Amino acid sequence: MDKEQEIYEAIARDLSGESTEEDTITISDWLDSDPQHPLIYSAIKNYWQTDINDSPADRILSKLKTRIRAGKSGTKRIRPFYSGIWFKAAATVIIIVGISFFIRNLPVEEAVPIPEVVKIEKTNPRGQKSTIFLDDGSRVKLNSASRISYIKGFSSEERKVKLEGEAFFEVQHDAARPFIVVAENLEITAIGTSFNVNAYPDREQVSVSLAQGKVVVNLPEGDESLPAGQYLEPGQQAIYNLKLNKLVVGDFEREEILAWKEGIIYFKNAGLPEILEKLEYWYGVSFNVSGSVNKAWSITAQYDNKTLEAVLTSLSYIKDFTFKINNDEVRIEL
Fold it and tell me: pTM higher than 0.85 for the full model?
């Protein structure tokens, strides 16, 4: 006999009250062999015990149940349920119920599609700047040697961006989803505003400069020595020293901090190391300096979308040095 048919015949005898010890063992083993089998058995049993509809299988099952009840009440002597055409019909109904009814009527857990999380990362090498338009309508001006990363479309609760380097953010207003910039250990939260964040990984401090609107600077979790959140007003700057674990808030000069996003190199009382570092990031070059490198410099100047050669020529008039540009290598003789 086919194994599946044997199982359903054992179930038929069980539901009609005619099961044997062997049937009980067979059903028990079958129930344990697959997590779906108890569900199938439950559906068959429920269907057997419920009201009858008008399908051919239902009409057969109705007659079977009537015949079984009559046999149990003693009103009529019948052959054992598992013999003859009635048992075959019962087994047929059980098979029909066990397969077709289970498929048609059991609640099926629909697979909930998991939205694909797409991480977007934008990186600028030294000497390159870019403007990035985010999905929410916000705009990011990304400085050279900088990187931002974020989840495409953001989440339904917040808009979070991770920054390494420097960027100017113009945030689209969305009261339901605050805009959060993660830079080193700080989180800068805004709803609709524009601000600059400088967080290059090789530096000891992170600065947040607010152009308009309002932001709150959140410090590392567990740090009770500093306020839980520092609010900034337009024109204010928060500088967090990573080594000293110290936050200082004060005013800033817009031109000095924000000129870069307009293509302007701005120096204020800048020494030689600061000038060379800024030019390396701006133009993507490296400097080899010889001569009187310890001589003090204090340069205040600005260069609006100038070439490296034009900037160095101007500086050479001020500090009297010679230079030679060879691709991305620059030699300076002081």
Answer: no
Q: Are 147 and 168 a contacting pair, CB within 8 Å? A: no
Residue 259: the pLDDT is 95
Residue 10 belongs to domain spanning: 3-105
The 3 state secondary structure assigned to the chain is: CCHHHHHHHHHHHHHCCCCCHHHHHHHHHHHHCCCCHHHHHHHHHHHHHCCCCCCHHHHHHHHHHHHHHHHHHCCCCCCCCCCHHHHHHHHHHHHHHHHHHHHHHCCCCCCCCCCCCCEEEEEECCCCCEEEECCCCCEEEECCCEEEEEECCCCCCCEEEEEEEEEEEECCCCCCCCEEEEECCEEEEECCCEEEEEECCCCCEEEEEEEECCEEEECCCCCCCCCCEEEECCCEEEEEECCCCEEEEEECCHHHHHHHHHCEEEEEEECHHHHHHHHHHHHCCEEEEECCCCCCCCEEEEEECCCHHHHHHHHHHHHCCEEEEECCEEEEEC
162 and 144 co-located in one domain: yes
For residue 15, the model assigns a pLDDT of 74
Question: Both 225 and 274 in a single domain?
Answer: no
Q: Return the number of other C-beta atoms located less than 10 Å from residue 311's C-beta.
A: 19
Using a pLDDT cut of 70, give the percent of the chain over it. 76
Average pLDDT over residues 52-60: 49
- Residue 83: is its pLDDT beyond 50? no
Model confidence pLDDT, tens digit, residues 270-322 = 999 999 999 999 999 999 999 887 778 999 999 999 999 999 999 999 998 99
Domain identity same for 129 and 82:
no
pLDDT tops 70 at residue 25 = yes
